């Protein structure tokens, strides 16, 4: 049985692989998410006049790309020469922040599409009390791709598959992709036999 490659930090195999990353061209398609980290203050805030309940004050907040966006950000951090990001975000403040996070990392956003009006940016908001993560707040879990929404994304993905030797497809949200989208992706993959497609799907 063939042994798996040694991927330890001092592995020659890993070193050679990392040396090739500046010439890599990779497209990432899928569920673009925003990870939100909200550190709550220890002391309670003011009492709400509307409910009579103590408010929780956010002491610090931090945001970073999640889902397929995290894959793209990690590839860039590793030194990949060109990373295309393809996906849908909402025309909302979280969508603004996710696009800003991509720009901060030097990722192109021309294939990050905004809207439609009822589309919420996928957000995993994680409140923390000290080191303990409290109940997560999720946004956009009810999004469903319609044919009109997904078709422009597939046009961008088709163009990326023609110019990038590697395409990563990442599905973060269970049930968000209808069978028609899966069939369209399978047909697109079949049209590009020389492109390596890596699929991480729920």
> What is the averaged pLDDT score?
91
Measured distance between first and last alpha carbons: 29 Å
So what's the overall shape? globular
Number of strands: 10
- Give the H and E element order: HEEEHEHEEEEHEHE
The portion of residues assigned to helices is 25-40%
Biggest β-sheet, characterized? 5 strands, parallel
Number of helices: 5
Strand portion, in percent? 25-35%
Radius of gyration from CA coordinates: 20 Å
Order of strands across the main sheet: 5-4-1-9-10
- Could you name the ranges where pLDDT drops below 50 across 5 or more consecutive residues? none
Structural class: alpha/beta
SSE diagram, text form:
Layout lengths: L11 H9 L4 E6 L1 E9 L17 E10 H11 L3 E8 L3 H12 L7 E3 L7 E8 L2 E2 L3 E3 L7 H17 L2 E5 L8 H12 L5 E5 L2
Parallel strand pairs: 1-4, 1-9, 2-6, 4-5, 9-10
Antiparallel strand pairs: 2-3, 6-7, 6-8
What does this structure look like?
Helices cover 30% and strands 29% of the residues. The chain is of the alpha/beta class and 202 residues long. Helix 4 runs parallel beside helix 5. The relative contact order is 0.18. The model has no long low-confidence stretch (mean pLDDT 91).
How would you sum up this structure in a few lines?
By secondary structure, this protein is of the alpha/beta class.
């Amino acid at each position: 049985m063939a042994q798996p490659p040694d991927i330890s930090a001092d592995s020659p195999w890993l070193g050679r692989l990392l040396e090739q990353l500046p010439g890599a061209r990779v497209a990432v398609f899928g569920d673009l998410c925003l990870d939100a980290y909200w550190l709550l203050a220890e002391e309670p805030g003011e009492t709400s006049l509307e409910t009579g309940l103590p408010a929780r004050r956010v002491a610090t907040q931090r945001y970073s790309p999640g889902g397929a966006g995290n894959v793209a950000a990690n590839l860039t951090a590793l030194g990949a020469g060109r990373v295309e990001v393809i996906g849908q975000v909402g025309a909302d403040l979280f969508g603004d922040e996710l696009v800003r996070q991509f720009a901060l990392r030097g990722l192109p956003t021309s294939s990050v599409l905004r809207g439609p009006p009822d589309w919420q940016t996928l957000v995993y908001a994680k409140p923390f009390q000290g080191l303990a993560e409290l109940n997560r707040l999720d946004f956009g879990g009810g999004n469903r791709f319609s044919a009109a929404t997904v078709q422009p994304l597939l046009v961008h993905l088709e163009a990326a598959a023609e110019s990038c030797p590697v395409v990563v497809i990442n599905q973060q949200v269970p049930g968000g992709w209808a069978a028609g989208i899966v069939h369209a992706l399978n047909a697109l993959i079949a049209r590009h036999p020389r492109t390596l497609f890596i699929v991480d799907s729920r």
